[in-house]
Amino acid sequence: MSLLSAAMKRIQPSATIAISNKARELKAAGRDVIAMAAGEPDFETPDNIKDAAVKAIRDGQTRYTAVDGIPELKAAIVAKFKRENGLTYKPSQITVGTGGKQVLFNALLATVDAGDEVIIPAPYWVSYPDIVQFAGGTPVPVETRLEDDFKLKPEALEAAITPKTKWLIFNSPSNPTGAAYSRDEMKALTDVLVRHPHVWILTDDMYEHLVYDDFEFVTPAQVEPSLYERTLTMNGVSKAYCMTGWRIGYAGGPEALIKAMGTLQSQSTSNPNSIAQWAAVEALNGPQDFIAANNKIFKERRDLAVSMLNQASGITCPKPEGAFYVYPSCAGVIGKSTAAGRVIENDEIFATELLEAEGVAVVHGAAFGLGPAFRISYATATKDVEEACLRIQRFCGSLR
Ligand SMILES: Cc1ncc(COP(=O)(O)O)c(C=O)c1O
After folding, report:
1. Which residues contact 178 (CB under 8 A, 6 or more apart)?
2. Of all protein residues, whose CA lies closest to atom 14 belonging to ligand 1?
3. pTM for the whole thing?
4. Is there an atom of ligand 1 within 6 Å of 123 CB?
5. pLDDT in tens, 133-143
6. Is residue 234 a contact partner of residue 202, using CB atoms and an 8 Å limit?
7. Ligand 1 atom nearest to CA at 238
8. Spatial separation of the C-alpha atoms in residues 263 and 260, rounded to whole Å
9. 296-339: per-residue pLDDT in tens?
């Protein structure tokens, strides 16, 4: 009898975490490695948020809390949804988990049965298909095209919907491409969803605040209020508030779904960390001006990376609206060989050889379900972005 469950055969370790670990190991062994693989800002958590956590400890906020969040945090989230997204939720429609990842996990495990299909535009964040599969469902990746800036087209969404479709997972700005949907682009998709009332919408708005050039962020239930009753709007403090290690994510949605997610959480992790919850209250209610300051730096890095990557031979890099990733195509180097004679047959070999030759860690596109391409995170020092892009130029230039 096998030790591991059948469900474990349906998931794999996260490719992004695996590559970040490999880069860390090489660095520890003395190699000059620039890691462009991690999905977290290089900025510190702002001091007012840290102070709120220290105060929470001193005030004795160190015990179990309500399973799906303290009332103060739910109130801050209700206010955030109203203020920033024009969405009205009651506290009973809000759930808080240990990171956005747990919120997604709860939502999918609470709703997906064997045979249910979940539409996932590709390239996608690595965890979506694995969580769907773990829940017993069938991920239905829908490929987007570089020419469309990796955005899902309404015709492609329409064609992917079947009677078995349970959810569309939507992520704007996107990890891994950085692509974000304008109001018009979003409306074209929500128009399709209006025609299919059995499809639920799980929108992952984790990168909401990381948009550049005056781009206006929108979320599905805001653009098409008639979808409100079947939309789970998920978000978190990890990225915009530089709080990846604190582990607080949240969602707003229909009460019955929120309650089921809480039941699941009550039997797994119970409440998210009490101290981090108080820090998140301060993050959402406190000053927001540091976000614009960080975004100015992110935008400069994005522009630098896009410009330098487009100068690398065989690389084409669209300029995305948000997040801190770019997703260049490496189609132009496939079939070429390294100086040592290794043929670049696919994007995984490209990433391995790039790491070997130049010490630059990127994540291959196949991990995100659409290649040949690779993801670069520019949430790292500007000088490292520049140096990494120079090395990529040199590596691509060396291929024959
Ligand atoms: C698109 C997307 N959703 C969700 C998450 C998970 O966020 P958290 O760290 O809060 O679990 C990430 C983190 O990388 C992400 O990129």
Report:
1. 302, 320, 321, 322, 323, 324, 325, 326, 327
2. 39
3. 0.97
4. no
5. 999 999 999 99
6. yes
7. 10
8. 5
9. 999 999 999 999 999 999 999 999 999 999 999 999 999 999 99
